[in-house]
Design brief:
This is DNA repair protein RecO. InterPro entries: ARFGAP/RecO, DNA_rep/recomb_RecO_N, NA-bd_OB-fold, RecO, RecO_C. Involved in DNA repair and RecF pathway recombination. One of its GO terms (biological process) is DNA recombination. This protein has eight helices and nine strands. It folds into two domains: 1-79, Beta Barrel (OB fold (Dihydrolipoamide Acetyltransferase, E2P)); 81-271, Recombination protein O, C-terminal domain (de novo design (two linked rop proteins)), CATH 1.20.1440. It has 271 residues and is of the alpha+beta class. It is 37% helix and 24% strand. It starts with a strand and ends with a helix. The strands form two sheets. The chain has a five-stranded mixed barrel with strand order 1-2-3-5-4. A four-stranded mixed β-sheet has the order 6-8-7-9, covered by helices on one side. It is elongated, with a radius of gyration of 21 Å.
């Protein structure tokens, strides 16, 4: 890249710089992660002001600089404006952005990561305002898919000791199975003595496991079918909301262990 170059990207992080400028971190399809100055973006009459805010997708013309590149033109193609107006959606979107920032590479195409992030931001954007349970559910699935793209998604269908399938058991009262952050897998609670090196960090209920397993699906529609399959007719919205919050906390710790990052926006999820 020399002189000027073109890119299509989504703004994942913005920082005020100087009196009127803005520094934007952008995930682009063609060049991966880039940082660029948007001159005068904070002026009221700036044509680039709105295009340099969070979660705007732009076709960009960028001038190569000695230390930082400079955006000279931007044409918005997608606007996720509804993410900014809802605290739950905003927190979930920033959460996914932090993971993408940790995964993205610079100076090489990031087509898969770019498309996957846009897919999940679009799903969050389409949720009804105030649907916090939906935001966390879609956040959990977005996290899982991003981890899968990196090849480090949790393994939640088999026991990491026996390699045998673990299915949620709704017929046994208080049935549970374990989940190990370090091994990244489910584990039968009665088997941990066979391999004491595997620490069980969480105990999953049948409903926890059912939801966890369906995070790998292309979307969450099949979860409703699975609930019907198991003839579960006593699940309240409050109970399901609790499941998604538990799974988010598990995934947060999993991210910290396997990606070595702290999700700063998670504080808004806990609020």
């Amino acid at each position: 890249m020399s002189g000027t170059y073109k890119a299509t990207g989504i703004n994942l992080k913005t920082i005020p710089i100087g009196e009127n400028d803005r520094l934007v971190t952008i995930l682009t399809r063609e060049h991966g992660l880039i940082k660029a100055i948007v001159p005068g973006a904070r002026k009221s009459n700036s044509s680039l002001g709105g295009r340099s805010t969070l979660f705007m997708v732009n076709e960009l013309l960028i001038a190569k600089g000695r230390s930082l590149d400079k955006i000279t033109q931007a044409q918005t193609t997608i606007s996720y404006g509804r993410l900014i107006d809802d605290l739950g959606k905003l927190a979930a979107s920033q959460y996914l952005a932090e993971i993408a920032l940790a995964q993205a590479l610079s100076d090489r195409p990031q087509e898969e990561l770019y498309q996957l992030l846009l897919l999940h931001l679009g799903r969050l954007n389409s949720l009804d305002r105030g649907d916090n349970t939906g935001s966390i559910a879609h956040l959990c699935q977005g996290i899982f898919h991003l981890l899968a793209l990196d090849g480090i998604a949790p393994q939640v269908y088999d026991c990491c000791i026996t390699r045998q399938a673990i299915e949620p058991n709704f017929t046994t009262i208080n049935w549970q199975t374990g989940f190990s952050i370090e091994s990244g897998s489910t584990v039968g609670l009665n088997l941990t003595t066979d391999d004491p090196s595997i620490a069980v960090n969480y105990r999953l209920t049948a409903l926890d496991l059912l939801c966890f397993q369906h995070l790998s699906d292309p979307n969450l529609d099949r979860l409703d079918l699975a609930i019907d399959k198991f003839s579960i007719d006593t699940i309240s919205d409050l109970e399901l909301a609790g499941v998604w919050r538990r799974l988010e906390r598990i995934l947060r710790q999993y991210i910290h262990y396997h990606l070595n990052i702290q999700i700063r926006s998670a504080a808004l999820i806990d609020f």
